[in-house]
């Protein structure tokens, strides 16, 4: 018999049971559900709402159920709908009527709100930990490539000289913001909803502060209606996870491009590549491609959550059961992608010569040439036009700026001197960009130090 069956005269149709049940996916909340119930039972005993002896019996029963679940000795029942009713039914079967006292001053509405917050708080910490590992890998690789010159791109066209280290630290900044977003989400999520009841709290003299302390929450929710109907925290987390995937997808796209023979800036380790069933020469970047593809899946979870919640009246509605599969899948997908992306990135081989050769073409030092003229007193717009004419000359002569003769330079402007060649050197072009945030070696070292300090402080 179902725990809520008192008002009903008929058994629930099998199809309804199957449709209504969530145990197929909310079983993963078993640890949070049992820990929440232990804290609740402890509070009930301490406040005298139930006898301390009964509370002790309930707690012992719950601890044994948790052990049996972890030892895979328990099979959950679809008849009991969800993890909450499965655990309560098991408890009652084991300790008798005392088990029925556990649900005093509690509803499944505030119980599930508690469980999912506890679970997602844990998963935020797990995801943050992997992101910090990625940050460390980015810093380590950047330190190895401070002087690996490469072209920077806009519109996927060679634009200005940069370094591979500078490029990597751009992603380090993105993932640093991702960690900040997860932290902000955790802060807003860190409220205990238990005690909200079904929607209007309870008449029992419960001690929510005691439960808050036992479960490690920072605050209690301030309004019982909001406590059971709020899923902003899941939506916010799905949004933060979507942005993480967007950053991983951009990174993946460049790895895919740069591993092609057209670029050949990078080479994937064999352990993180796949081959073709028909073309023996192929080495495919499937990890990066799947990461790029799974980004849409996480976006879909965010849209699912927003759509589920967009028109729900207060307070709890069964629609909200749909929150779990979406947010669980988003969390799982992001962690899966990160766990394989990090070692794939760490094992990449960097083709420094290819990067340097690419930087030597495409006139990426054209802006530096214009800046050289400005420092000689030529107005920037005039300098811009002069360098444009030089580029046209180079194209016709199949030359680069640094291979032109001084006579060629002076044919366009007598402002050019022997020192133009040093000014156009790619190393000079990079290391003159010492503005904070720029690609100069000393500045990128500072960027690495800032990220390393962030990693260190975050781990404290």
CATH architecture of the largest domain: Up-down Bundle
Helix- and strand-based class?
A: mainly alpha
**What level of helicity do the residues show?**
55-70%
Query: Terminal Cα separation, in Å?
Result: 50 Å
Instruction: Provide the gyration radius in Å.
Output: 30 Å
Name of the CATH class of the largest domain: Mainly Alpha
Instruction: Assign the CATH topology of the largest domain.
Output: Fumarase C, Chain A, domain 2
Report the principal-axis shape.
Answer: elongated
Query: What's the helix count?
Result: 19
Strand order of the largest sheet: 1-2
Q: Uncertain segments of ≥5 residues (pLDDT<50)?
A: none
Question: How confident overall, as mean pLDDT?
Answer: 94
Order of helices and strands: HHHHHHEEHEHEHHEHHEHHHHHHH
Strand content: under 5%
Largest sheet: 2 strands, antiparallel
CATH superfamily of the largest domain: Fumarase/aspartase (Central domain)
């Amino acid at each position: 018999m179902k725990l809520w069956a008192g008002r009903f005269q008929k058994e629930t149709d099998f199809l309804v049971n199957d449709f209504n049940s969530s145990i197929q996916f909310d079983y993963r909340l078993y640890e949070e559900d049992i820990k929440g119930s232990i804290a609740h039972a402890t509070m009930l005993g301490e406040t005298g709402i139930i006898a301390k002896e009964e509370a002790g019996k309930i707690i012992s029963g719950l601890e044994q159920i948790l052990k049996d679940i972890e030892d895979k000795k328990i099979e959950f029942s679809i008849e009991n709908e969800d993890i909450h009713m499965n655990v309560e039914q098991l408890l009652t079967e084991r300790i008798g009527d005392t088990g029925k006292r556990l649900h005093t001053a509690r509803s499944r509405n505030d119980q599930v709100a508690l469980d999912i917050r506890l679970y997602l708080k844990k998963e935020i910490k797990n995801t943050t930990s992997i992101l910090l590992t990625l940050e460390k890998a980015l810093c380590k690789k950047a330190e190895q490539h401070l002087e690996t010159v490469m072209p920077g791109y806009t519109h996927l066209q060679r634009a200005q000289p940069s370094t591979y280290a500078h490029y990597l630290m751009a992603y380090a900044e993105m993932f640093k913001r991702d960690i900040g977003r997860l932290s902000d989400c955790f802060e807003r999520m860190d409220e205990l909803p238990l005690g909200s009841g079904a929607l209007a709290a309870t008449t029992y003299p419960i001690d929510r502060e005691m439960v808050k302390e036992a479960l490690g929450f920072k605050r209690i929710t301030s309004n019982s209606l909001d406590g059971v109907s709020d899923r902003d925290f899941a939506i916010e987390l799905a949004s933060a996870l979507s942005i993480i995937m967007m950053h991983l997808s951009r990174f993946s796209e460049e790895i895919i491009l740069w591993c092609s023979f057209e670029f050949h800036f990078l080479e994937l380790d064999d352990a993180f590549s796949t081959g073709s069933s028909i073309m023996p020469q192929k080495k495919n970047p499937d990890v990066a491609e799947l990461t790029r593809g799974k980004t849409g899946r996480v976006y879909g979870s965010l849209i699912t959550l927003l759509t589920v919640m967009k028109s729900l009246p207060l307070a709890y509605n069964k629609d909200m059961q749909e929150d779990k599969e979406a947010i669980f899948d988003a969390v799982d997908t992001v962690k899966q992608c990160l766990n394989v992306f990090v070692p794939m990135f760490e094992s990449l081989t960097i083709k420094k010569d290819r990067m340097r050769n690419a930087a030597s073409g495409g006139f990426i030092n054209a802006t530096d040439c214009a800046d050289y003229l400005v420092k000689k007193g030529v107005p920037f717009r005039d300098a811009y036009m002069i360098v444009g004419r030089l580029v046209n000359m180079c194209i016709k002569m199949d030359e680069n700026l640094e291979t032109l003769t001084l006579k060629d330079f002076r044919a366009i402007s007598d402002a050019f001197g022997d020192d133009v060649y040093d000014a156009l050197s790619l190393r000079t072009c990079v290391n003159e960009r010492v503005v904070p945030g720029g690609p100069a070696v000393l500045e990128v070292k500072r960027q690495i130090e800032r990220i390393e300090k962030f990693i260190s402080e975050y781990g404290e």
